[in-house]
Design brief:
Blueprint lengths: L10 H6 L5 E3 L1 H39 L3 H51 L2 H7 L4 H11 L11 H17 L12 H7 L4 H22 L10 H6 L4 E4 L4 E3 L7
Antiparallel strand pairs: 1-2, 2-3
């Protein structure tokens, strides 16, 4: 329940007495975890490519072996080695796909938090029916901002690609792999790779920055900077999305 702070009252006491709004920073939490997933997935992706490169070399060696018995032994070793692929491949796919889901959730949570401020209750119900991309197209026009994102170019176009990947991830179809060497093709088909995920992260960050610049003149939440997010992970904020009050940690001024 919102209350109006009386003149002369202590803001710290107001906060302790629950007279100041406190919000869970869902956009920040989702975005920070997406960054973590992309960073981890990038490292694991490099390990996976090394594994596949070694596997290809072993297959080339096998093809040159003429002795049937030795050839069979090498084949068995190759098959057993494939077992080491499953964990690392699964980790790569999981991290990048989950990052896509988190980025879409972050962008939608952020635009929803602004809609809660600027739209009437009846309009919010209609707003909730829009897709994540539709919400980002609609609200800047309602706010009468000069910045008008378009699905045909820029950060909203890239965001729409993330949404499509997200939709495929949460409505999955069976993906078959005919051989270990086909794994690279599968990664491209999904697609999951560092450059694709980083483009998605950059696009979502640009949406936040462009909207904030046009709306409030700020450069967006502090957690858009990876270093800042690691040093001060997002969790709660006071006030609202238009003028969020950052909560300090013990010892901070």
């Amino acid at each position: 329940m919102k209350t109006t702070r009386q003149e002369g009252s202590d803001p710290v006491e107001d906060f302790i007495e629950n007279q100041m709004d406190l919000n869970l920073d869902l956009p920040g939490l989702f975005y920070a975890e997406a960054m973590n997933r992309i960073e981890r997935g990038t490292k694991t992706y490099a390990e996976l490519l090394k594994f596949l490169e070694l596997h290809e070399k072993e297959i080339s060696k096998r093809e040159k072996i003429k002795d049937p018995s030795e050839r069979e032994n090498v084949t068995c070793d190759l098959i057993q080695g494939i077992g080491g692929l499953e964990e690392i491949f699964g980790s790569v796919v999981s991290d990048f796909l989950v990052a896509d889901i988190l980025l879409v959730s972050s962008a939608e949570a952020y635009i929803n938090s602004i809609a809660q401020i600027v739209l009437a209750s009846a309009d919010i119900k209609e707003f909730d029916k829009l897709s994540p991309v539709g919400k980002w197209m609609f609200l800047p026009r309602v706010l009468n901002l000069k910045w008008r994102p378009s699905v045909d170019k820029g950060c909203l176009q890239e965001f729409s690609r993330i949404v499509r990947r997200r939709n495929k991830a949460i409505h999955p179809q069976i993906v078959g792999v005919k051989g270990v060497l086909n794994v690279k093709h599968i990664l491209k088909k999904i697609p999951v790779d560092p450059s694709t995920s980083e483009r998605g992260r950059t696009a979502v960050a640009s949406l936040f920055k462009e909207l904030c610049l046009a709306w409030t003149g700020s450069y967006g939440p502090g957690w858009l900077d990876p270093a800042a997010a690691r040093e001060h992970p997002p969790c709660f904020y006071g006030g609202n999305a238009e003028f969020p009050l950052r909560l300090g940690r013990p010892g901070e001024t």
